[in-house]
Write a structure and sequence with these properties.
It is built from eight helices and two strands. The protein is mainly alpha-helical and 153 residues long. The chain has a domain of 32 residues. Strands 1-2 form a two-stranded antiparallel sheet. It is found in: Membrane. Its cofactor is heme.
Length: 153
């Protein structure tokens, strides 16, 4: 009976030590003041499921509410609409800078696993990463090329 419980204190110590080490690593990797945490401030008052939607349906119009949030949090901030986080840019220069540097990110659809699997790795037009205009432009150029258009008999 002594042989079964002889290694128990060592295994408990190893378990507690590894758990404390894991928690310390997670704490260090998620520090707020790190250089990698460059997210804009999030507006306060979000509810768990609906986010800030209750603030937008108040007595004031939504654009007035967002303008007052911009006065409080600055020209760029985040808010939650439902479960989705939304970036709000209320200054013209900030919006121009953001959209000029990240134009390819905003022009595409979000990547979805269902679209990748059902669309044969985004090969279908409706499930592709870009909009219909960028997909149909090469198709129109190919179909209207001189070698593909046959004269009628």
């Amino acid at each position: 009976m002594d042989s079964i419980f002889s290694g128990a204190p060592a295994s408990i110590f190893a378990f507690v030590f590894s758990l404390c080490s894991l928690l310390w690593i997670l704490k260090v990797s998620r520090r707020k003041g790190s250089k990698h945490d460059q997210t804009p401030p999030e507006a306060a008052g979000a509810w768990p499921v609906i986010g800030h939607l209750h603030l937008l349906s108040g007595p004031h119009m939504p654009h007035v509410t967002i303008a007052s949030m911009a006065d409080k949090y600055g020209p760029i901030f985040t808010m939650k609409l439902g479960l989705h986080k939304v970036l709000v840019m209320s200054d013209r220069n900030v919006a121009k800078e953001c959209l000029n540097t990240n134009d390819m990110v905003f022009s595409s659809r979000p990547n979805a696993t269902a679209a990748e699997v059902m669309g044969y790795n985004y090969a279908m037009f409706g499930l592709g990463p870009y909009g219909v205009r960028t997909v149909l432009a090469p198709c129109a150029q190919d179909s209207c090329a001189s070698d593909s258009v046959q004269p009628s008999p």
